[in-house]
Amino acid sequence: MLSIKNLQAGIEGKDILKGINLDIKPGEVHAIMGPNGSGKSTLASVLAGRQDYEVTGGSVEFNGKDLLEFSPEQRAGEGLFLAFQYPVEIPGLSTVNFMKTAVNEVRKYRGEEPLDAVAFLKLMKEKMALVNISKELLTRSLNEGFSGGEKKRNEVFQMAMLEPKLAILDETDSGLDIDAIRIAAHGVNAIRTKDNAVLVITHYQRLLDYIVPDFVHVLYNGRIVKSGTKELALELEETGYDQIKSDYQFA
Amino acid sequence: MSTVTTIKEKMDLLAAKADQLAPVRQAALKAFNNFGLPAPKHEEWKYTRIGNVFNLPLQWAPDQVDAVTAEDLKPFLLPGHEEANVLVFVNGVYASALSVIRSASIECMSLEAAMDSGYAELVAANLGHSGKYLTDGINALSTASLRGGVFLTVKRSKDAEHPLFVYNITDARQVNMLSQPRVLLHLAENAGLQMMETYGTIGSQESFTNQVMEVVVEKDARFEYYKIQNDAAHASQVSTTHIRQTGKSFVHAVTISLNGAIVRNNLNLVMEAEYCDSHMYGLYCMQGKSHIDNHTIVDNVMPHCESNEFYKGIMGDASTGVFNGKIFVRQDAQKTNAFQSNKNVLISDDASVNTKPQLEIFADDVKCSHGCTIGRLDEDGIFYLRSRGIPDQVAKSLLLHSFAMDILEQIKPEPLRNYVDRLVSERLAYEME
To answer: Signal peptide position in this chain (chain B) (predicted)?
Structure first.
């Protein structure tokens, strides 16, 4: 589904990703872990198409297409979704209206008919139940005055609405208490199928108790320095990143 | 003959007219001759070159109003028109054939007639009151030109059953027209009125509307006021709304400006009683070479008053904007709460805004705040929307619409809100193409 080969990228002339290789197949859950500043969020941003970042080398193929050629909105149309670490607050725009526009724009991109009001409402109710989110929250201004947990739950709701092939969760656990993590993770698990995949980006192992990865990769200094199964995450939790840092500081 | 020569001649003729309004006109003519037209060095007109409008040969409006028919009016009608009290001004002169007062609680008469009525004292005290705050030739021009103006009063303890719609229509089919509509509105004790107002220029010649509306709001009265400015791109106007709150009362004013060549608004709120509650909202959304200028004055004279002022602007193309918000808190006006904010988004490199809050506080126990911002659309917001599949242009217009939302929400009548919302949405979609 996703094939990243020797991806190099940076911002304002500073190299951050120094050759990433990663393959994700349908149905898989991958976790990328790493210390602060290792390039985790940069990888998420580059995949989603944030323009501040410049790709200087390598390739990313998504379902056989060159992902890097696409604009952010085209990537969403192709089935890529990024759950933001810091969801943006937009006063004056409700989640409902936001999603109505987004769902129909994505449908248009895919050559499908737009949903009418009734069909949209039906879809929304179904997904609301799936991710356990209230209507009241969805009619309020997008993320404005939301708690950390509400913001992340709203991200998961958007994910459910757009039914992506690949969902990237960028530090979805950061700043959340245990209950909030559990609710967010429950939502993610509820929308997993054998055809879609999840890439979890996280600093800590705890989210992986709830969204169990098939593969764990350690990102350090712009490279994946170690890959393994979910046991690797537990190991890292035990030792911290210091061991990785001393092992790979010259990498 | 130059426009200035023409208008001086006409004002002289009017001043010589021996009717009930003569003393008011004569005093204003003196003021006009003293002030002249505002020069760019005039502090209140620094960024709005209104004098240029008079370089055109402007026609002095005729007394006859029958050139404009009900059919001509149609493109300008606001939603709910059929049910409303309607006042139509044609080239600044009241057009009775196009107007209708449905509410028994509203009395309507010419200013001249009002001077002969039981309201004579009220009219004399308030007609031209705006000149105490607006010391320039534009305001004096209106008062010195008093003709075809209207006095309205909403009776004591009555809510007008229907809203009042005011249409300021200018006929510029043949000539460049100078139009000076004039209204004195009175809300008696515990009266309530909802008023909507708009402007329309017919024809492709230029027009200049110099409008003054003076309002007296008595104790416990409620005045809700919506001004919709979406005139032709070749139409200019100075629109003055001067509101005196003579008793504890409620005022809610929303000004929506979408089009025009030069649009200057003077909105004055004089709070002369304790416990007045006033809200002023504005949204301007300009394109082309339009110029929008909102000058507001809030004068807190008595203690315990609250005022809330919130203006937002979206400026495209080579449009220019001005916001100037004065708040006076007089020495006796303790416990005043005055809030002011002006936020602008520039969506073009050629657009600009000059914004200036001006607080003059002479009391020591008050809460006043003000703030202004001028910026661009937030890149993070754009990326967030795009990452959900929303194309760049759609994302930008959605964000601009959201920015305008809290002002649009202040339009309480739903049909009018939907109407304005549609105009704004269309505008933003256009801006983004």
So the answer is: none
Q: What residue ranges define each of the domains in chain A, with the CATH number in brackets?
A: 2-248 (3.40.50.300)
Number of CB atoms found within 10 A of residue B414's CB: 11
Of the candidates B391, B402, B404, which has its C-beta nearest A90's C-beta?
B402
State the best of A88, A106, A115 to mutate against chain B, taking most chain B CBs within 10 Å. A88
ipTM score of complex: 0.96
Sign of the alpha-carbon dihedral angle for A170, A176, A178, A181: negative
* Cα distances (angstroms) measured from residue A169 to each of A36, B118, B140: 16, 74, 65
> Which of B381, B398, B403 shows the shortest C-beta gap to A101?
B398
Question: By the 8 A CB rule, do B56 and B206 touch?
Answer: yes
pLDDT (tens digit per residue) in B358-386? 999 999 999 999 999 999 999 999 999 99
Query: Both tokens of residue A171?
Result: 């530090």
Burial of A76 (0-12, 13-18, 19+ CB in 10 A): buried
Structure-token pair, residue B400: 């601009």
Q: What is the CA radius of gyration of chain A?
A: 18
Question: Residue written as tokens 């001005």?
Answer: B322
Q: In whole angstroms, what is the distance from residue B428 CA to residue A222 CA? A: 42
Judged against a pLDDT cut of 80, whether residue B431 lies above it is answered with no
**Which amino acid is it at B163?**
P
In 3D space, the residue among B109, B118, B120 whose CA is nearest the CA of residue B152 turns out to be B109
Cβ within 8 Å, pair A72-B406:
no
